Amino acid sequence: MSGVVAPVAPGGLGQRPQPAEVLAYLGDLDAWVAGRRAELDAIDAAALTSARRAEVDGDLVLSMALWKSAADRRDQLRTAWDGGRVDDSDLDRIAVLIWGRLEAAGAKGAGGAAVAVSIPEACRLSDALASQLRARLDLAPATERATARIRDLRAQLERLRDQVALEPPETRPAAQRTLEELVARVDAVAAKHDRGGDVDGLLGPVENDAARTERDLIVGGVRRREAREHRARLERLRAELQAREATIAALADEAVATVTPAPRNAVPDVSLLGPVPADAAGLTAYDERLDRVGRAMDVAEQRYAAALAERSALLDQLAAIEVKAGALGVSTDPDCAAARAQARAVLDRRPAPLEVAGHLVAAYRAWVDLVAENAPAAPGGRRP
Q: Where are the coiled-coil regions (predicted)?
């Protein structure tokens, strides 16, 4: 039994593919999905009668999960392709579907944490796992099996070369050394196989190490991509908070100058957080600190705005009472006029004592009500 090979995806994230490339990729992906499903069915049937069933259960479940995720995304791509009736926006969406992350249930990194992979990554992981499962279940005659396994290993080494080239400078030397060791081991096994030697016992450990290395490299790439996206999001959030800092500081200055007592909430200085770190642990801690700063800004903004709103509400009340006094014909009454003038004068102060102003506005309202109630009735029995 020989395995299908993950098709090469067109373009990259943010790169619009050409319609011809999408059509070719969908055809290759259809063949991969069908071939891998048939292969997994055969592997599952062989595992049911194998003494190694318990050993391969986990990888078999993971392989099925990866296949299902890839098949679902293939269906989404088919829907977006719509028989070739696509414009530029459709091609952009297809690029996102190809290179964006899909949920591969059960896919685990070296630390046991679940990861989200793109469909090309899911296909390559599935290739690696299927190759390993075939080897562990002995699903081919000895010579043919060994030849196929060596061929699969060499294809896997080529994929590893591509993955190593994507490693950052700080981890690439170690990954390159691991790749060179695997190449040397595969060359040694292939040479022994060409001489007619039995290599079954040698292939298993090499396949396991190659599969583990490929998985770790893919997961590492996903983790770095997630870290880059996380860092970019934090950079944007930090910039937004710095812009808010200036706005809230101006609001605080206005509130302190306009009313008393004014809130005394400190406006956080975003610059004290320092630059956004690059490592995953540092990003998590920095995210939490930005969240605390954002919540502190929310509280400060609400309280300073509320203080200014309280003065505005008192001015609105004063204006409404003035209209009422005019309607009742008591606006020129000395007591009413004096109460209004005093309330207006206090509200116009900088800063205006809000508690005193509130009492004076209430006093003005009381004077208007009292004078209107005690005013002599107009001719006809009505009060002015």
A: 224-254
> What does DSSP say about strands 102-108 and 114-117: parallel, antiparallel, or unpaired?
antiparallel
Tokens of 28: 């290759």
Joined together, the tokens standing for residue 180 give: 């060179």
Supply φ then ψ for residue 114, to 5 degrees: -70, 145
CA angle 213, 216, 220 (to 5 degrees): 140
User: pLDDT tens digit string along 2-34?
Assistant: 568 889 999 877 788 999 999 999 999 999 999
- Following CA atoms 324, 329, 334, 339 in sequence, which dihedral angle do they give, to the nearest 10 degrees? 0
